[in-house]
Amino acid sequence: MIYKAVATCGFGLESVLSFELKRLGVNNVVVNDGRITFDATGEDIARANVWLRTAERVMIILSEYPAATFDELFDGAYAVNWGEIIDRKDAFPVKGYSMNSTLTSVPACQSIIKKALVERLKKDYSTEFLPENNRVTKKIRFSIIKDRCTLMLDTSGDGLHKRGYRPLLNEAPIKETLAAGICDLARVFPESRVVDPFCGSGTLVIEAALRAKNIAPGLNRPFAGETYGFLGDGVFKTVKENARAEIREDAEFFGRGFDIDPAAVETAMANAERAGVDDCVSFKQGDARTFAPREDEIVLANPPYGERLMEESEVESLYRYFGANIFAKKFKGLYIISSHPEFERHIGKRATRRRKLYNGMLTCQLFMYF
Q: Strand 55-66 vs strand 148-154: parallel, antiparallel, or unpaired?
């Protein structure tokens, strides 16, 4: 069966995610703000969950319809044949959001959609009682944008940025999906050398290593879709087995990371071990202000922005010292993300190229020097 699927991503990473999907060989890839739709078989949905590095979530689109009133919202949700998707005892929580629409109360919309599902399932199963006590949970997500509702079945479960290697967080982590996007934009290859002078929990270096060794980011985590029999028996297991066979053990990649905090260095090394890349990365204590890259290294960095960890004046001073030092050295490329509005002035050089990205809710720029 062919499903209409959607993969969501952080704003600014749409083109990266689009290329990822095309490399997977799926059809009818359509790019929208923060989401890419595509046609998918059950195996494609499993492959998308296991392989996509920059996607936040993969869902199956169940229905799209106008919803300017609560009646329209209810009727559209009720029209879906939920009995083909949700078993009688399954739990089916409803979550979503509304933007630029007449219906602005998200809790009210959740309640209406949930009521519609319950009434339709009671009809489909000829029952007045839905226990929702099964171990299987099928999360229903909705978006209402410009008075148009989209109902979706979540196949990912936890967000895809949760690879499973980073249970321990330092104070200001960068999401794995954003880090993977930066690695893509920096053109990290199997033979690349990468260094991060502000490594924190090591995410940029680890994501670069996963990419270079062709290790699927979802290889060691569970997915909600693994419990959905209609996607195909054992399809996720097969996709993971095939992914293990595609790991490049011969990759010549090496990554280094430095942080002034010794606790962050310990955390980064533990995360690398859990990710299975500790054989090709190293993390050491070091000060970014005196950091020296090698000529063949790509420098990836997520320095403090002055939002939480340091005062703005301290951050600006750090940028000035870092810029004066690094631009006196030779390196292959520098890709550094910051939300500071005058980053280029403080670091002392205009970027070759810039790209707008979002780190959580923060609007940032990826400053690229090459």
A: antiparallel
Judgement on whether residues 105 and 194 belong to the same structural domain of the protein: no
CB 300 within 8 A of CB 183: yes
The encoded tokens of residue 134 equal 């099964």
Contact 8, 55 (CB under 8 A): yes
Q: Do 186 and 140 belong together in one domain?
A: no
Average per-residue pLDDT for the chain: 95
37: three-class secondary structure by DSSP: strand
For residues 31 and 199, is the Cβ–Cβ distance under 8 A? no
Question: CB count, 10 Å around CB of 87?
Answer: 13
What CA–CA distance (Å, rounded) separates 342 from 1? 51
Question: Are the C-beta atoms of residues 186 and 335 closer than 8 Å to each other?
Answer: yes
**Burial (Cβ within 10 Å: 0-12, 13-18, ≥19) of residue 131:** exposed
No. of helices (H) and no. of strands (E), the chain: 10, 14
d(CA 88, CA 130): 6
Query: CA–CA separation, 303 vs 310, rounded Å?
Result: 10
Query: Is the distance from CB of 343 to CB of 350 less than 8 angstroms?
Result: no
In tens, the pLDDT along 308-331 reads 556 788 999 999 999 999 999 999
- Mark whether 148 and 183 lie in a shared domain: no
236 within some domain: no
